[in-house]
Amino acid sequence: MELFLGMDVGGSRSRAAVVDGSGRLCGTAEGPGGNPVSHPPDQAFRALAGAIRAVLHDVPAAAVRSAVVGMAGVGPMQLPAMSADLADLADAVGLPCRPTVVGDVIVAFAAGTAEPDGTVLIAGTGATAARITGRERTAGTDGHGWLVGDTGSAFWLGQRAVRAALAALDGRGAATSLLGGVAEALLGTGAGDPVPETVLNADARADTAERIVHAVHAGPPIALARLAPLVSIAARAGDAVAGGIVAEAASLLVADVDPIRDPGERTPIVVAGSVVAGDTPVADLTRARLAARWPGCVVTAGDAARAAAWLAAARSVPPGRAAELHATILGT
């Protein structure tokens, strides 16, 4: 029996999948974030080792012929050290092969199509777009992190929600239901507390704003990403401010694709991540705009860990067989 191991390694969780040569799923596992870019190396590799051991619990590690590990934030400078560390990890867990490290954009693209060329747009906690040629990243936009980039991401949406709430409080912006949502999420206001929209006293408004600002700065900046669903809820309820944020996010995400894709191109555009691949207004608008410009090209990504396992298997079979395996493993 030949087995193929795939891993999707993020900052918040690590997911693994094992398939056999027929594409049958033999095991899955999930563990804590194992990305060395986001965590201390020792902590990251303990998480990776735990996920690998868990996914191989009921299958022989010695049967794994190939393994692919997808990680965000891994570029040419980090690859040599990362590959060496993963080789040591493979020895520790009993893998007979050396895992191949690829960027998360490669895995995300493979999660949507078996084609070797196309475009991938990822918008989850962060946001980036990449051109894929021969299953390699050959061009890209954004992905620069929350401080200087990631426009249209969940972090960006959460940050805009807070800004809109603060603007509504001090009169710089229009009234918005985002104020109530942000106050509830950050301050835990309940039924017995004043509803922020109805607080007319200037001192009370200033106090609410100060508490919101304090709550934001008390946590890690990236935690603002958890406020992104507030924008979706408000936009679907007809809130004009939230609707404007949604429209801006969609424009920014489509703008990520523009520089790396030809106008008449017919290769797939894979969308991945909770913001553009989930059930959100931003996803609906972004996909509609992409489909209007590139009809019939937009595909929603499936399971990334299974896609990584497919990438491992695709290296060992003819191209035609790889496409069949993709259909079996990912349901495409």
From TrEMBL:
GO molecular function, a single term: kinase activity
Residue ranges annotated for the ATPase BadF/BadG/BcrA/BcrD type domain, each copy included: 5-276
Descriptive protein name: N-acetylglucosamine kinase
Keywords, sorted A to Z: Kinase, Transferase
Signal peptide feature range: none
Coiled coil: none
InterPro entries: ATPase_BadF, ATPase_NBD, Euk-type_GlcNAc_Kinase
Organism placement in taxonomy: Bacteria, Bacillati, Actinomycetota, Actinomycetes, Pseudonocardiales
Originating organism: Pseudonocardia yunnanensis
